Amino acid sequence: MRSIWKGALTFGLVNVPVKVYSATEDHDVSLHQVHDEDGGRIRYKRTCEVCGEVVAYQNIDRAYEDDGQMVVLTKEDLDALPAERSREIDVVEFVPTEQVDLLTLDKAYYLEPDSKSPKAYVLLRKTLEQTERTAIVRFTLRQKTRLAALRVRDDVLVLQTLLWADEVRAAEFPALDEEVKISKKELELSSSLVDSYSSDFDPESFVDEYQKELRTLIDAKIEAGETFDVKETFAEEGEEEKGGEVIDLMEALKASVERSRAKKKDAG
């Protein structure tokens, strides 16, 4: 891995030099746009609306428009902002881990100690583990001030950016305002259904079926000289089960429980 940022974690008088790495990567098959008649690659050009010239990326500035007025911000302007010059990840507070809403979690990064001795790094890691707390931090990356949660994963400190409070939409659904009566029997059957599906989560057991099929399709095109029948590449499965809206919740729960139990019995 290659680090994307270097700085220091700071809380109180403690300073922990770190390198930052992206913790995730995208494995989606990359597709290009092409002309359907000749296969020619479609490319987009950055064209100036005033002079009509194609503009090189290094000659492009940013601008903000408000009420018919435009303010141009150069790269030098943005680099001069105090927050952008900062190379510190400032710990704002330590909060109970369960108070961090999963809905706000965004991009994840690994932090590697960047000093001759990792003692301060290990101390912070062990402190977070022992106190069962998550550190809320603030830092600047790629010209944006970010809020993030600092937590422990295995033996590594993980920095996970958080959405700002005003970026999370409120869930307002009138249907949920109505009072719904749930019987004790319905709740028991629903709980029984959950029990029948209960398992330990193993991420390795799940794969991206679409990307897998897309790769198979591409390989088949290559082997077949670009001419083949898609139906011959993917084995056809049975027709999808048809079904309408379930009206009787009790019957649906009973059927689900029985089906799940039958599958577990067959698997056993």
General description of the model:
By secondary structure, the protein is an alpha+beta fold. It is 28% helix and 26% strand. It is built from 7 helices and 9 strands; from the N terminus they run ββββααββαβββαααα. It has a 7-stranded mixed beta barrel with strand order 1-2-6-9-8-7-5. Strands 3-4 form a two-stranded antiparallel sheet. A hairpin with a 2-residue loop joins strand 1 and strand 2. The longest helix has 19 residues. The radius of gyration is 27 Å and the shape is extended. The two termini are 43 Å apart. About 3% of the residues have low confidence.
Counting DSSP H or I runs of 4 or more residues, the number of helices is: 7
Q: Strand count, sense and closure of the main sheet?
A: 7 strands, mixed, barrel
Helix and strand content put the structural class at alpha+beta
Major β-sheet strand ordering: 1-2-6-9-8-7-5
Rg over CA atoms, rounded to whole Å, is: 27 Å
User: What percentage of residues falls in helices of 4 or more residues?
Assistant: 25-40%
Return the average pLDDT rounded to an integer: 84
Q: What does the overall shape look like?
A: extended
Strand content: 25-35%
**Number of E-state strands:** 9
List unreliable stretches of 5+ residues.
Answer: 238-244
Distance between the termini: 43 Å
Element pattern in H and E: EEEEHHEEHEEEHHHH
